[in-house]
């Protein structure tokens, strides 16, 4: 056996092993998941406190501090109020709105 074959096998094995250790951009630690859950709950509370926004019609998802608002509201003003309410919540880094006007 040529000496280059074992070296090649070693490098291929190392490459495969090290690539399995990498994390994807969608991986989150437990602390991040808990913080995102807490942010979502605080945003829902803020939406429920606004009498013009029906909190049951607006869904909230949070990923690494970015809040996604989706669902339906009666007017563009109510959509803006939902975004403004979410923006006031501690821990919110960014807001993406997919709210649809009925």
TrEMBL record:
Quote any Pfam family the record assigns. BON
Keyword check for Signal, yes or no.
yes
> Could you tell me which residue ranges the BON domain spans?
35-102
What start and end residues bound the annotated signal peptide?
Answer: 1-22
Q: Which UniProt keywords apply?
A: Signal
Question: In its UniProt entry, what is this protein called?
Answer: BON domain-containing protein
- Protein source organism: Massilia glaciei
């Amino acid at each position: 056996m040529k000496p280059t074959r074992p070296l090649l096998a070693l490098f291929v094995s190392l490459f495969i092993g090290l690539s399995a250790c990498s994390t994807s951009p969608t991986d989150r630690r437990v602390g991040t998941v808990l913080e995102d859950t807490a942010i979502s709950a605080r945003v829902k509370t803020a939406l429920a406190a606004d009498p013009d926004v029906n909190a049951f019609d607006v869904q909230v998802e949070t990923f690494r501090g970015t809040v996604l608002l989706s669902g339906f509201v009666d007017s563009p003003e109510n959509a803006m109020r939902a975004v403004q309410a979410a923006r006031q919540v501690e821990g919110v880094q960014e807001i993406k709105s997919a709210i649809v006007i009925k």
